[in-house]
Structure formats: C-alpha cells, structure tokens
Design a protein that fits this description.
Blueprint lengths: L1 H18 L7 H21 L2 H5 L2 E8 L6 E2 L1 H14 L2 E15 L2 E13 L7 E13 L5 E10 L9
Parallel strand pairs: 1-6
Antiparallel strand pairs: 1-2, 3-4, 4-5, 5-6
Length: 163
C-alpha cells in the first residue's frame, strides 16, 4: 500500500513538473522580467526604432490606444507607428511602473501606471501625460514573452488641458 501511495505521489509530481515546464516562475520573477523588457521597449520607442519596438509584440497583437481606434495585428500597429513618426510626433520620455503581475498558464497580465512626454510640431513645450495600462503577455515556445494585448488611457482630462 505504501509503495502504491509513493508511486502515485511521484507520478503526480512528475506530471505537474513536466506539464508546467518545471517550477513556474514566481510573480516577482515575472515582474522583474517584464520590467527588463519594458526598459528595452521604452528605449526602442524613444529612439524611434519601430522595427525593434515591433519585435516585442505577437503577430496577432491587439492594441487599444487611448482616444484611438483598436489596432489588430502587427502590420496595423506598424502602420500606426509610422504615421505618428511621419507626423512629427515624438515620444521624448516614457516611464512605466509595474504595479501587479498575474500569471495563468501561458499568459501574464501586467497592470501598471505610466508617465510620458511627447513633442508635437508647432508646440514649444512637450506635452506631459500620465495614466494606467494593462498588458497581456504571451509566453512563446522559446520561453520569451511577447505582448498579445495592450490597452492604456490617460488620467489627464482634455477638459483640464491648458490652451
């Protein structure tokens, strides 16, 4: 009887270890990984490197920008970024703060806040913004993380903006 129980316990542990890919990363480890990726993504964004920025997204990304149309797919996101760049709008600072990370199977949900500033042609001072966001990351077969879904919105009311 003891042998059956020990064998069953071993089998259960083996199956859990095998199908979860070993010991799952803790939320603290995932948070640290996401913070590192966010720094790389921010650097690519600030340098205007659209191709590098896009490398952090899945092919079927869904992006829901503040006061903008939903973008579906990497090509739509690329087009939007290129249009912004051609218009002369430039992000000059971007500081995301990861508040919470929750994982489930192959996805990780990141909840955070951001501060940013951007320059717009014809405006002498950068426009400052701050708000909140949710990013859903997808674990890839190689173990890397890519952005599957993102949504953000400002805490700054257009009604409060100085003219």
């Amino acid at each position: 009887m003891k042998k059956v129980i020990l064998k069953s316990a071993f089998l259960i542990c083996f199956l859990v270890f095998t199908f979860t890919g070993g010991f799952a990363q803790s939320n603290a480890e995932l948070k640290a990984s996401i913070e590192k990726i966010n720094k790389e993504l921010a650097a690519a964004m600030l340098s205007g490197n659209i191709e590098k920025s896009l490398s952090f997204y899945t092919v079927d990304i869904i992006s829901m920008p503040n006061q903008g149309k939903m973008l579906e797919g990497k090509e739509a996101l690329k087009k939007s970024n290129e249009e912004m760049k051609q218009s002369g709008v430039k992000v000059v600072s971007f500081e995301p703060v990861v508040l919470k990370v929750m994982s489930c199977d192959k996805t990780i949900t990141e909840i955070g806040t951001y501060k940013m500033a951007l320059t717009i042609p014809g405006q002498s001072d950068p426009i400052k913004d701050h708000g909140k966001y949710i990013t859903v990351w997808e674990k890839q077969t190689d173990g890397s993380l890519k952005i599957k879904l993102e949504i953000w919105n400002t805490d700054v009311s257009p009604m409060d903006a100085k003219m």
